Amino acid sequence: MALSMLPLLALSALFVYPNIVSANTNFTCSADSTRSCQTYLTYRARPPYANLGNISDLFGISRLSIAQANKLTSENKLLYDQLLLIPVKCSCIENSYFANVTYSIKKGDSFYVVATSVFQNVTNYLITYVWQPKDDMNPSLNPTNLTVGEPVVFPLLCKCPALFQNQDKYLITYVWQPKDEILQVSSMFNTSSYNIVNENSFRNFTAAACLPVLIPVSKLPIFPPPGFKSKRSKKGEITFIVLGNFGSFFFYLFCHALKHEANVPTKNSQDKMLATEELKILVVKTTRDATEELKILQRVNHTNLVKLMGMSLDFDGSCFLVYEYAENGSLDKWLFKG
Predict the structure, then answer these.
(1) Does 194 lie in the same domain as 247?
(2) Does the residue 229 lie in any domain?
(3) Are both 185 and 324 inside the same structural domain?
(4) Is residue 200 domain-shared with residue 325, that is, in the same domain?
(5) Would the pTM of this model clear 0.70, i.e. be above it?
(6) Is 210 a member of any domain?
(7) Using an 8 Å Cβ cutoff, are 195 and 216 in contact?
(8) How many distinct structural domains can be found in the chain?
(9) Is 291 exposed, middle or buried (0-12, 13-18, 19+ CB in 10 A)?
(10) Is residue 163 part of a domain?
């Protein structure tokens, strides 16, 4: 984006100043929040900031503090796109929370480039353009003619927890990725999906792509390496949306049976027979998007149609629709025999 366009964009941002927030995620200070705190931002290791030295210089903190926050040793090599926790001091300034970082302008830089590329959208170029000159933190700054080597203070979005948030010790600023899903992110941070949704005012996370959100945690997470996919499917790790009276119960029994499908009951395994003799037979359909199918089922209701008993999502975004079993087969097989 050309620098000449920034004044017009900045003028529009003045209408919401000083309560500068990312849509539906509140970064403003409140009466029941502390004025400053130690918290964390997330940052992905990408060239030229792909090692602890360059990242620590960028944020003006020690390598040791980053290494300790991420349980790294001196021998650890950062992988491309590796997600890191960056410790910062978050303070309430002009009714909004920020962690200020001084950045030295390089050739080809603009507010937009630095905000989106260097700081990976954990700040907003309009915030810097409008807010910083107002507070005289960059008194000699000419926003439309940045000078190479000139130090500029960039405000990074952060937030301190409210005093009543005893369980959530930190609110971590995380930039939502286009392929992110709420279950996957909550698993990655080892926190509750509901807590994430609630902290971000029940926002539409699909529209939050490339924007900072807040992740409430009771303890710091250890992130998996890039490309890692969780294969957990233990009891208690499945989220149910119950569309029938006992949908979730039957679906649990079905998943439990699949887990132990190798243990087929025999005449000598009376305990197993007792445990599974009342097991209901169901059909599970796997899909990536069940939206249209669910809309149709909401409009159609007939005794001769199989009932949808329940639905579940896994950590990879697959959807499982659980139907009652049609013992005699589908209608089309009877109408078009042969």
Answers:
(1) no
(2) no
(3) no
(4) no
(5) no
(6) yes
(7) yes
(8) 2
(9) exposed
(10) yes
Query: Are 14 and 75 in the same domain?
Result: yes
The answer to whether 231 and 51 are in contact (CB under 8 A) is: no
**Which strands form 36-44's sheet, in the order they lie side by side?**
151-157, 96-104, 83-93, 36-44, 170-175, 212-217
Instruction: Determine, yes or no, domain membership for 225.
Output: no
Full residue range of the structural domain in which residue 307 is found: 239-335
Three-state DSSP string of the chain: CCHHHHHHHHHHHCCCCCCCCECCECCECCCCECCEEEEEEEEECECCECCHHHHHHHHCCCHHHHHHHCCCCCCCCCCCCCEEEEEEEEEEECCEEEEEEEEECCCCCCHHHHHHHHCCCCCCHHHHHHHHHHCCCCCCCCCCCCCCCCEEEEEEECCCCECCCCCCCEEEEEECCCCCCHHHHHHHHCCCHHHHHHHCCCCCHHHHCCCEEEEEECCCCCCCCCCCCCCCCCCCCCEEECCCCCHHHHHHHHHHHHHCCCCCCCCCCHHHHHHHCCCCCEEEEEECCCHHHHHHHHHCCCCCCCCEEEEEECCCCCEEEEEECCCCCCHHHHHCCC
For 22, list phi and psi in degrees, rounded to 5.
Answer: -85, 140
What is the chain's pLDDT, residue by residue, as a tens digit (338 residues)?
Answer: 444 444 444 433 433 333 444 447 999 988 878 889 999 999 999 999 999 999 999 999 999 999 999 999 866 789 999 999 999 999 998 788 999 999 999 999 988 899 999 999 998 766 655 555 444 567 777 777 888 999 988 999 999 988 776 567 899 999 999 999 998 999 999 998 888 998 998 888 888 999 999 999 999 999 988 876 655 444 333 333 333 334 444 444 444 444 444 444 444 444 444 444 555 777 888 876 666 676 676 667 677 777 777 766 665 556 777 888 777 777 777 777 75
